[in-house]
Amino acid sequence: MSKFVREELMVNGVSTVVHSAGSGDPLVFFHGGGTVDGFEFAEAWTDRFKVIVPYHPGFGESGDDPTFTDIHDYVLHYLELFDMLKIDTLRLAGISMGGYIAARFAIEHGQRVRKLVLIAPYGLNVPEHPTLDLIATPGEQIVPMLVSNFEVLKKNLPEKPDMDFIGARYREATTFARLFWEHPFDPKFPRHLYRIKMPAMIVWGQEDKIIPVGQVRHWKEKIPHAEVLVVPDAGHIAYLDKPETLDTIARFLK
Amino acid sequence: MGAGIRFNVMHFMPYVHLPENHKDYKTTWVNFPNKFYDPEKGYELYQQYFDQLILADRLGFDAIVLNEHHNTVYSMMATPNVVAATLIAQTRNARICVWGVPPNFMLPNRLAEEYAILDVMSKGRLEIAFPLGTGMEYWSYPVSPVTAREKFKESLKIMLQAWTADGPTTHYGNFYTYRFLNPWPRPYQKPHPPCYIVGSGSPETIELAAELGLGYSSVFVPQKTAQDLNQRLRERAAHYGHTIRPEQLPLLNFVYVAETEEEAEREYIIHLQRFFEDYARSSPQWLAPPGYLSVEQLKIRSAGADKLHGGFDFKAISNSFFIAVGTPEKVANLIGEWTQRMGTNHINSVMHVADMPHWKAVKNMTLFAEQVMPKLRTAGGAR
Prior knowledge:
The complex is a heterodimer of chains A (254) and B (383).
Chain A: E1 5-11, E2 14-21, E3 26-30, E4 50-54, H1 71-84, E5 90-95, H2 97-108, E6 113-119, H3 139-145, H4 151-154, H5 163-180, H6 189-192, E7 200-205, H7 216-222, E8 227-231, H8 238-241, H9 244-253
Parallel strand pairs in A: 3-4, 3-5, 5-6, 6-7, 7-8
Antiparallel strand pairs in A: 1-2, 2-4
Helix pairs in contact in A: 1-2
Chain B: E1 6-10, H1 39-59, E2 63-66, H2 80-90, E3 95-99, H3 108-121, E4 126-131, H4 135-140, H5 148-164, E5 169-172, E6 177-181, E7 195-199, H6 203-212, E8 215-218, H7 223-239, E9 251-257, H8 261-279, H9 284-287, H10 295-308, H11 314-320, E10 323-326, H12 328-342, E11 346-350, H13 358-379
Parallel strand pairs in B: 1-2, 1-11, 2-3, 3-4, 4-7, 7-8, 9-10, 9-11
Antiparallel strand pairs in B: 5-6
């Protein structure tokens, strides 16, 4: 039985579902561009933090808002959500697209972010270590590529995808395409990363097939003070392949 | 054209020379390698296809229909207005229908200009359809399928404004800004050439046609669905104060005429099979890029697609879609029955499919013009 408590808030007209558990200072986790991987892993943090996992608009249990056309719309959404939840300062972690949102949030509202963890973040265009084209690659091919050991993800997936599952994936792909179909990368993004001044950690699975680990060097160049944790034998969602990663992250965040 | 039924010849101008190993490729669209396109063979095909369409004009067909597709063997008309300009110069009577350029892939004023030029050049023989563009087109163009419907609607509004309001006018929209919308020339036909919307049955598209009072042609949907769509358009258009006339409902169909039914089937079926299995071979991913459909429509179409993928069955396909293959009598009877059932008098026939050789296309059109059209001209269609 999950320890997480579900709460639904209206954030400027968008139904936003937040799952939270644990006690302590708030730690917010931003999921990536799909939600098949779930958030149960975050239980590992609940002994040290109040862990808060919101579903982004257009994903999972949250509602849709077709006016969200840019990642910055998510930054503004979370500013409002944090105000509503009376979260002043927070630890912020995000994976993949969630890492991109977290980095953008930290660039613009650094005074609220005490520590930042970016796990295989999306957002840099690195031609020599290209990000897999998540729009052109069929979803059924992407899912097995998310981890090194597919068994760790399989329990979250239906044996045979039904229409509801297919529809839910199509909806999330639509939200992702709304943000990234025409402009997968914002060329102005890298020049603002210098504003990340709080303690930061960059985590990357050595075997990441979605966003290659080679990109870690480019993030480190822009955020020189960041700690880097490369996880051997782990894929894009490194903490599913190697759950001990979660403890390393928690110790950094403490 | 006069009273009675109107007959179009629609052509896809396919690139027919598939490589031996083409079945190794899941689809013949979007990412099917263009190294397989040989321009010398392309030249010869254009000669044949232009001959066929010029013949259609001489045989008395009322219209020639062109359309646009990208990254595929299915069509050599990536820019149909170029083809239309050539046909205008070589035909006399047939209306030239560009059905059409997806407005999302052009600046709307530019498209309004091109169509106006074609209309003036042809002394008012142009007809236009506005397709959203298939999913495959969006994979091939740098345009987001997620906002495609909104953008499409705004484009249509701009084009209709460009043709109907004296310029310069302005437009400040979500996708386009015009400080001086003032295209020269203006269309020959007033207020503008006949316009249709083509689609595969999305409720959003029907609603737009109804709102604007435009014609609508469903393509590649089963007969029963097509009938429901026509009915829905009439009802929704009435809601907006428009009356849909029979000629605004072109009925897409596949026709082959020969001296006997056996001969028709022997000469035709293999090409129709190759059309569905090879030249139109797509995939669920290509057909529905993210955001192209609503989640609801995606579920409906995924369920439908499961039923279709049982291999080629001529009898089943003939019963499901509008396909008439046989003697002039049989074809005339079928078409007559369709016009009544669908409430149309506008027959839009594909008479060359896939790798059909030139002689069959010529025979088909000739027999149709000489032995089918006269029977139906006197009978007339729905009014």
